[in-house]
C-alpha cells in the first residue's frame, strides 16, 4: 500500500519523534511520570489494534473494556492465584480474549453496525456484572492483587520497558497491515461494502479477522494493565475508560495510525494536567466526540493529511491522454 | 478438454425477480460468450440494472437459473462469483476516495492473494511478492486505460469520466472472464465515449465476455456484437445489432413512448 | 411469585415503550439513536425535580417533563442526526447519537447527582403489594402509548404522512412532503414519548442518571426481538425481556439481572436477527 503521494516522509519524522518521546519518562527519574507513561502505553496496545477495527474497517466495538477486564483477571488469577509463569498467563489472557472475539464476532459481524455496537455494549455490561458477582473467582468488589513480571522487568522502569517493547511490536504489526494490501481491504469494507463484495472481498470475514486480532491484543493489554495497577477491582473497568479508547481513535482519525496514538496520549494527559477536568472527563469525551463527528468526521489525522496534500477533490480532471490499447491488451492477456 | 470447459458461457436461463407485486425481471434468458460484447438496452425501469444485480449475485433470483459454463451460480454469493471471474462496475462508480488510484485498482487483485493476515502483519516475503505482482499488473492496466499519470493521486481527485475508467481498470485487475458494465458511458463526452469504445473492444479482443448495460443506444449498436432489449422486465428483441435496431417493438419503445 | 410477575410486566412495559420510541425514529429517519433510553432517564429525573424539588403539582410536573423530553428529541435530531445523515456515512450516526447520549447523561449526573433518588407517588396509596402504582403506571402508560400510536398512524393526517415517509422516503418527497420536517417531528415525538415512559416508570426505576445506557440496550433488544418497526412486536419483546429480568433476579439473585436476560436475548438476536416476528433484513445495492 503506497498511500497518497508525499505522506511517507512526515510519517517517518513523526515515528522518530515518538520514539524519542518514549525515552523521556524514565530519564526524569520521577516514578509518577513513569507510571502514567506505562499506563498510556498499556492503553495504546489495546487502542492500536482497536483502531484497525474502528478506524480501518469501520466497525464500532464499544465493549473492548470487557476484553481488557477479562485479560486483566485472567492474568491476575493465573499468575497470582494459580501461580503460572507471568508470560504464560499474559499469553493465556490474549488467547482467551481472541477466542471470545471469535465467539462474539462470528454471529454478529454479519449484521448492520448498530447490532454489533449493541452486542458489544451488552458484553461490556455483562463482564462488569460478572466480575462483581463471581466472588469465588474474582474476589468480587474487594478485588485482587496482580503479580509483577520477573527481572529485568520487575522495577517500574523495567516494566515500562516491557510495555514499550510490546507496544512497539503491536504498532509495527498494525503499521505493516495498514501498508500492506490489508490496508485497502479494510478500508474497502468500511467505505463501500458493496464495492468490496463485488471485488471478492468478504466484509464479515475481514471484520472478524481484525476483531479476533484486536481481541488478542486487548487481552495482552489487560494483563499488563493489571500489573500496572498492582491491584484490580471491577471498578477499574468503567464504561468511561472504554469510551476513552474509542474517542482517541475517532479524534485521531480513521485510517491513520499516528493520529490515534497522539489522540490516546493527549486524551490521557489532559485530565492529568488539568485537575479540574477530571470531574468533567466523560462529558468532555462526549463533547469532543460529537464535535469531531460533526465538524471533521475524518479526525485530525485526515485534516492534517488534507492540508498537507496538494490537489483537492475533482480538480485534476481529464488526463488528456487517451488509452494505450496495446499496453492494455498486453496487461489483460498476460497471466 | 471440451469446448465448453475451455470457453464457458455466462448465462441466465428464464430468470425472474419480483419486488412486491412488481415483476422487475420476468423470464429473461440471455447468454454472454467469451470475446463477445453483449449490449443490454431498454427504457428506464425496464429491469436492466436488476438483471445485472441478478447476474452479479447482489439479488437472488425468484425463479430460473444462472450459470457459468457447467457451474450453477444460482445460489452462489457475490464474492464467490467474483472469485470465479465475474466482475462488474456500478452506475455511480463505487471507488475508495481516500485511497490512491493505484490502490483502488490493486483492490481488484485481492481474491488472488493467498498470504494470510498474520503474514502481512509480520511483513513476510510472500505478501510482499504478491503485492508486487498485483501492483505491476495494476500499473500496466492504468497505463493501458490512460490513467498512468494520475496513479498516485487520491481517487476522489479524479473527474467523473476518469472515475468511470478507473472502475473498469479495477474490474480488469480481477482478471475476470466476464465483465458487466452498468452504464459506463453515462455523463461522458463524445471523445471520452470513443475512448471507452476502444477500451471495451480491447477487452473483447483479449477474450473477455462483456455485458454492456447502456442508455446510449447509438453507442451500443456501434460497439456490440449482439444486443438484447428489455421492456417492463421482459425481452422484446434479441440478436444482431442491425436486426434489433429495426425491430418494430424496439422502435415503438424508443420512439413511441 | 405474583409480585415477581407483576414487577416483570412493569419492567417489560418500560422496555416495550423504549422499543416503541426506537421504532418512531427508525420509521422516518432509519436511525436508531443510542440515546433512546436516555429520553426516559431525563423524563424520570426532570419529573422528580419538578414535583419533589420545586413542589409543582403533578400535572404541571408531567407537562414540564414532556416538554423537556420534546426539546431533547429536537436537539437529538438537530445536533446528532440532521447533519450526519447528509454525509451518507453509515456509522456516523451511531457515533453522534452515542456522543450526545453521553453528554446528556454526564450533565444529568453532574447536576442531579449520581445516586438514584426516589420518585414521587402520583396517587395517594394505602397499600403496596400487587396493587402498587409503581407497577401499574408503566403498564397503563405502555398500553396507552401503543394504542395511541396505532390511532395516530391510522387515523390522523400527520400519522399517515409519517407512514408514507417511512415506507418510501423518495416517493414521499416526490409527492411534495417535507421529509426533513417529518423527521424532526418524529424525533420530538420520540423524546416526548420517551420522557413519558420515564415519568410513568419513575417509581420503579428511581430517578437515576445511569439508567439510559441499560435502557437503550434493553429497549433495542426488545425492539429487535419483536422485529424493528412493529409496535406489537416491541411490546411483546419488552415483556419477554422484562419477565426474564424479573425471574432471573428472583431465582439467581440480583447480581445476575443483566447478564442472563441480556445474554440470552443477545443470543436470540444474533441467531435470528430479523426478530421473532420480523421479516428478513433487506440489503440494497
General description of the model:
The complex is a heterotrimer of chains A (335), B (257) and C (285). Chain A has 15 helices and two strands. Chain A is mainly alpha-helical and 335 residues long. Chain A has a domain at 13-238. Chain A is globular, with a radius of gyration of 21 Å. Chain B has 257 residues and is of the alpha/beta class. Chain B is 40% helix and 23% strand. Chain B starts with a helix and ends with a helix. The model of chain B is unreliable at 1-5 (pLDDT under 50). Chain C has twelve helices and no strands. The N and C termini of chain C lie far apart (51 Å). Chains in contact: A-B, A-C. Chains A and B meet through helix 7, helix 8, helix 9, helix 10 and helix 15 of A and helix 3, helix 4, helix 5, helix 6 and helix 7 of B.
Q: Topology of this protein?
A:
The complex is a heterotrimer of chains A (335), B (257) and C (285).
Chain A: H1 8-28, H2 31-56, H3 64-82, H4 86-108, H5 113-133, H6 135-138, E1 144-145, H7 156-179, H8 181-191, H9 193-198, H10 203-229, E2 231-232, H11 239-252, H12 258-273, H13 277-295, H14 299-308, H15 325-333
Antiparallel strand pairs in A: 1-2
Helix pairs in contact in A: 1-2, 2-7, 2-8, 2-10, 2-11, 2-12, 3-4, 3-5, 3-10, 4-10, 11-12, 11-13, 11-14
Chain B: H1 3-6, E1 10-19, E2 22-32, E3 37-41, H2 48-56, E4 63-68, E5 71-72, H3 78-83, E6 86-88, H4 101-106, H5 117-121, H6 125-145, H7 160-173, E7 178-182, H8 190-205, E8 209-213, H9 217-223, E9 226-231, E10 234-239, H10 241-245, H11 248-256
Parallel strand pairs in B: 3-8, 3-9, 6-7, 7-8
Antiparallel strand pairs in B: 1-2, 1-4, 4-5, 9-10
Chain C: H1 2-29, H2 36-53, H3 58-86, H4 92-112, H5 133-155, H6 157-167, H7 169-174, H8 179-200, H9 202-205, H10 211-226, H11 231-252, H12 257-271
Amino acid at each position: 500500500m503506497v498511500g497518497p503521494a508525499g505522506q511517507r516522509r512526515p510519517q517517518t519524522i513523526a515515528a522518530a519523534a515518538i520514539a524519542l518521546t518514549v525515552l523521556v519518562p524514565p530519564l526524569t527519574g520521577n516514578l509518577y511520570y513513569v507510571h502514567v507513561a506505562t499506563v498510556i502505553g498499556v492503553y495504546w496496545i489495546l487502542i492500536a489494534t482497536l483502531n484497525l477495527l474502528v478506524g480501518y474497517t469501520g466497525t464500532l466495538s464499544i465493549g473492548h473494556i470487557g476484553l481488557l477486564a477479562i485479560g486483566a483477571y485472567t492474568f491476575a488469577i493465573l499468575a497470582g492465584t494459580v501461580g503460572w509463569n507471568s508470560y504464560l498467563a499474559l499469553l493465556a489472557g490474549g488467547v482467551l480474549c481472541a477466542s471470545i472475539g471469535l465467539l462474539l464476532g462470528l454471529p454478529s459481524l454479519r449484521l448492520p453496525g448498530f447490532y454489533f455496537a449493541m452486542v458489544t455494549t451488552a458484553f461490556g455490561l455483562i463482564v462488569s456484572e460478572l466480575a462483581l458477582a463471581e466472588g469465588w473467582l474474582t474476589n468480587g468488589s474487594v478485588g485482587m492483587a496482580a503479580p509483577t513480571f520477573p527481572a529485568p522487568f520487575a522495577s517500574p522502569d523495567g516494566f515500562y520497558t516491557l510495555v514499550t517493547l510490546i507496544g512497539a511490536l503491536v504498532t509495527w504489526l498494525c503499521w505493516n497491515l495498514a501498508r500492506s494490501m490489508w490496508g485497502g481491504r479494510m478500508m474497502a469494507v468500511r467505505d463501500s461494502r458493496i464495492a468490496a463484495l463485488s471485488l471478492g472481498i468478504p466484509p464479515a470475514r475481514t471484520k472478524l479477522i481484525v476483531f479476533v486480532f484486536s481481541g488478542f491484543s486487548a487481552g495482552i493489554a489487560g494483563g499488563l494493565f493489571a500489573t500496572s495497577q498492582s491491584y484490580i477491582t471491577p471498578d477499574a473497568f468503567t464504561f468511561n475508560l472504554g469510551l476513552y479508547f474509542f474517542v482517541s481513535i475517532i479524534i485521531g482519525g480513521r485510517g491513520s495510525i499516528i493520529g490515534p496514538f497522539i489522540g490516546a496520549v493527549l486524551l490521557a494527559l489532559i485530565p492529568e494536567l488539568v485537575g479540574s477536568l477530571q470531574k468533567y472527563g466523560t462529558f468532555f469525551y462526549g463533547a469532543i466526540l460529537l464535535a469531531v463527528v460533526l465538524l471533521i468526521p475524518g479526525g485530525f489525522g485526515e485534516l492534517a493529511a488534507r492540508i498537507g496534500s496538494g490537489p483537492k477533490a475533482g480538480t485534476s480532471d481529464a488526463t488528456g491522454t487517451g488509452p494505450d490499447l496495446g499496453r492494455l491488451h498486453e496487461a489483460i492477456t498476460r497471466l | 478438454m471440451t469446448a465448453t470447459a475451455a470457453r464457458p458461457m455466462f448465462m441466465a436461463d428464464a430468470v425472474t425477480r419480483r419486488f412486491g407485486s412488481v415483476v422487475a425481471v420476468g423470464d429473461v434468458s440471455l447468454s454472454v460468450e467469451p470475446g463477445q460484447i453483449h449490449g443490454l438496452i431498454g427504457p428506464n425501469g425496464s429491469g436492466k440494472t436488476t438483471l445485472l444485480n441478478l447476474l452479479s449475485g447482489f439479488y437472488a433470483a425468484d425463479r430460473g437459473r444462472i450459470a457459468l459454463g457447467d457451474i450453477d451460480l444460482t445460489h452462489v454469493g457475490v464474492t464467490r462469483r467474483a472469485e470465479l471471474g465475474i466482475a462488474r462496475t456500478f452506475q455511480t462508480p463505487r471507488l475508495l476516495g481516500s485511497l490512491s488510484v493505484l490502490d483502488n485498482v490493486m483492490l481488484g487483485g485481492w481474491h488472488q492473494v493467498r498470504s494470510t493476515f498474520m503474514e502481512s502483519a509480520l511483513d513476510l516475503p510472500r505478501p510482499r511478492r504478491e503485492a508486487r505482482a498485483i501492483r505491476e499488473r495494476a500499473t500496466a492496466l492504468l497505463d493501458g486505460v490512460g490513467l498512468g499519470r494520475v496513479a498516485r493521486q487520491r481517487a476522489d481527485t479524479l473527474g467523473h469520466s476518469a472515475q468511470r475508467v478507473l472502475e473498469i481498470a479495477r474490474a480488469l485487475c480481477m482478471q475476470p472472464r466476464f465483465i458487466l458494465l452498468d452504464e459506463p458511458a453515462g455523463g461522458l463526452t463524445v471523445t471520452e465515449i470513443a475512448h471507452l469504445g476502444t477500451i471495451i473492444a480491447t477487452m473483447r479482443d483479449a477474450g473477455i465476455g462483456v455485458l454492456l448495460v447502456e442508455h446510449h443506444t447509438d453507442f451500443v449498436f456501434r460497439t456490440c456484437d449482439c444486443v438484447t432489449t428489455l421492456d417492463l422486465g421482459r425481452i422484446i428483441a434479441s440478436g444482431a445489432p442491425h436486426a434489433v435496431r429495426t425491430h418494430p417493438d424496439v422502435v415503438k419503445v424508443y420512439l413511441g413512448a | 411469585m405474583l409480585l415477581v410477575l407483576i414487577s416483570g410486566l412493569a419492567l417489560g412495559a418500560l422496555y416495550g415503550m423504549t422499543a416503541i420510541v426506537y421504532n418512531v425514529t427508525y420509521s422516518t429517519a432509519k436511525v436508531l439513536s443510542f440515546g433512546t433510553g436516555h429520553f426516559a432517564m431525563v423524563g424520570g429525573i426532570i419529573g422528580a425535580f419538578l414535583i419533589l424539588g420545586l413542589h409543582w403539582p403533578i400535572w404541571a410536573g408531567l407537562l414540564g417533563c414532556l416538554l423537556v423530553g420534546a426539546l431533547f428529541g429536537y436537539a437529538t435530531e438537530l445536533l446528532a442526526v440532521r447533519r450526519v445523515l447528509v454525509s451518507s456515512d453509515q456509522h456516523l450516526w451511531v457515533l453522534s447519537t452515542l456522543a450526545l447520549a453521553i453528554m446528556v447523561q454526564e450533565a444529568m449526573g453532574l447536576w442531579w447527582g449520581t445516586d438514584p433518588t426516589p420518585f414521587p407517588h402520583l396517587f395517594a396509596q394505602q397499600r403496596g403489594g400487587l396493587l402498587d402504582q409503581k407497577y401499574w403506571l408503566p403498564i397503563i402508560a405502555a398500553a396507552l402509548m401503543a394504542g395511541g400510536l396505532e390511532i395516530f398512524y391510522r387515523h390522523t393526517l400527520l400519522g399517515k404522512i409519517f407512514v408514507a415517509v417511512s415506507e418510501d422516503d423518495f416517493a414521499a418527497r416526490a409527492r411534495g412532503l417535507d421529509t426533513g420536517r417529518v423527521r424532526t417531528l418524529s424525533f420530538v415525538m420520540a423524546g416526548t414519548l420517551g420522557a413519558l415512559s420515564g415519568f410513568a416508570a419513575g417509581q420503579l426505576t428511581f430517578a437515576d442518571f445511569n439508567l439510559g445506557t441499560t435502557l437503550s440496550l434493553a429497549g433495542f433488544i426488545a425492539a429487535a426481538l419483536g422485529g424493528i418497526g412493529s409496535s406489537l412486536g416491541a411490546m411483546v419483546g419488552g415483556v419477554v425481556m422484562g419477565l426474564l429480568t424479573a425471574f432471573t433476579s428472583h431465582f439467581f439473585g440480583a447480581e445476575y439481572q443483566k447478564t442472563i436476560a441480556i445474554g440470552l436475548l443477545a443470543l436470540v438476536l444474533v441467531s435470528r436477527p430479523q426478530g421473532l416476528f420480523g421479516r428478513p433484513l433487506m440489503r440494497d445495492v
